[in-house]
Amino acid sequence: MAQPILAVRLLWSAAVLFTLSRGGPPLLRSKPRNPTRSSLRTSAHSASLYPDPRRVRYPFGLVLADVSFLKRARQSPLYLIFPATYTPNEAMVRRLPVFLSQRLVRGLILLCAFGVSPARCQEPASPSAKPAPKSLEASEKQLELPAQIELLETRVRFEANGDSRKEVHTRVHINNELGARQFARLAFDYNRSFQQIEFPLVRVTHTGGGTIDILPSAIADQPNPAVINAPAYQDVRVKSLRILGLAPDDLLEYRVVTTTSHHPLAPYFWFSHSFERTGIVSQEFFELDLPASRVESCDVTKEDALRHANPATPATSKEIVGEGDLARAICRWERRASPKRSQTENPEVSEPDIAVSSFSWEWLSIKLAEKLLPGAVPLENLHTFDAEQQELSRKPDATAEVKIKGIELTKGAKTDRERLEAIYDFVSQKIVTVDVAIGSTGFSVRRAAEVLSSGYASPEDKYVLFSALAYSLNLQAGAALTGYCSPKGAPLPTVFTHLIIAARSHNAQFWLDPSLEVAPFGTISPIPKRCAFILNRQFVNLSSTGHEWQTIDSHPPFTGFQKVNVGATLSSDGSLTSKVHYTMRGNNELLLRVAFHQSPKEKWKDVAQLLALSDGFRGKITNVTVSDPYATKAPFTVEYEITQPKFVDWSHPPNPLRVQPPRRSI
User: Fold this and answer.
1) SS3 letters for 420-475?
2) Residue 628 lies in a domain
3) pLDDT of 660
4) What is the tens place of the pLDDT at every residue in 514-532?
């Protein structure tokens, strides 16, 4: 009887340890895990300088990272691809899966980046072996970069009408096979409706002698993967260049020219640039050429052209060329990599080194609100007060089709909130999100009736449809941008990452995010500093400034909770089989809804494996069931079964039994 009683006690202890290993009951945790802001649809938002295998996709359906040598993806120096003159965000990956909680990301890293498999997780920890000493030569070889950018030369020129030209000259030394694979394909995002990309030079110099110029047949121009099934957005494209035959010690040299004309926001212009700080680029030149009528010099700021520069990176030279309307202000920077500079400079600078914009934050808010109102007339084109006030009274375009749809959706609704929920559920779940980056269409939008008939929309177009449906029911809706909160920074439209909606009834306001598709009504991704950039044309009538930046209450309109039940069975051979059941409401609910919504059903075990690993559960997932991610009016549930062989060692009963409790992930 001793051994069965011991087994029962051990089983009970194992279940307790299994639960405690994840930090105790979720409701008792002092700091629950919260997701951060999200970008939740699989797409190629940024032009990747590296070949497709560098763009790693994981079971969440999210792009984790593009290889950028030693630098974090959002700070990749490879701005040489320059997706657009008007969108000079130099991050290789705009949308890392920062929506995932920190512990889930750690599980992702452990499972994917380091190749942790369920089988290995089951094995008992072995005594750590003393690492063999490495030679100096081996250490130097290990630190070798796949490629070294020997020269990065960038020239940007803006005209007074907002047109621009950017030319990037790059010379790359390929160090090894990995570098050859990384640079075997260059890809550049652009918008065909107002941009062009050309390759005047692409040349490979082989180490054994001889050069090869890449032929035009190696160039491909295709729609961005996110818009392949969305004909209305076919102008959002990727131009790629195949470079075959690269080998270690080869030298790759190319020039890329991006021209922008008649941008939807012209004559306003903006630009930002950050220097590379990790030593990947040996020598960097940057030249900014601006009309002197907009910016008198590199140091002078005029009201219609705000310039921000990092005082730690002053211009190397400054000059005024020409006279009168033809005068140009030219600023140049030159930087060389050095061990001393790498040690003293912070490679994780959040603000750009150089930023120029002809917007103010207030006027940017007014113009973007104007672009999101189909048919709106630019206020600067109106010359009388009465005409301006009449234009400011313009309402969303609620056509007959839109009004009929609004009545149909709210047939059984009795309150304004129920009406808002009905149109939100429709726009969120029935209109497919086309996940292009904010501003990739130049903030050009379609009319609500066209969005309704097509059945798909960008985040901006989803707002257009929602606001038109709301207006048809005598409700109100406004737009706001999130992802950036620095009123003292340069007014750049490209710094924002997400568009949310403020829906108002007579006595309440709700923040909504229909682009997530599975977010419950009133639930949005947590916003850093709870700060949002409000878009409103009426700001033109206010004498004060700063009202475009507002702190918002993003808490969902229901009580959040998380419950986890764990049941375990211990077999005679020492294997532990456990069923883990999650029931949750709130931020963590949104995290898991999106994760399973993004993943095909055959990948759900992989998602659950990451969830288990992040919570310290070791073993192999054998079964997963989840509630419908679209059923947003009820809590979200996840249940998986996990098996861990040899959880108990019966080999030396009964003194003592060796138990291996689950270990928390790092």
Assistant:
1) HHHHHHHHHHHCEECCCCCCCCCCCCCCHHHHHHHCEECHHHHHHHHHHHHHHCCC
2) yes
3) 58
4) 999 999 999 998 887 789 9
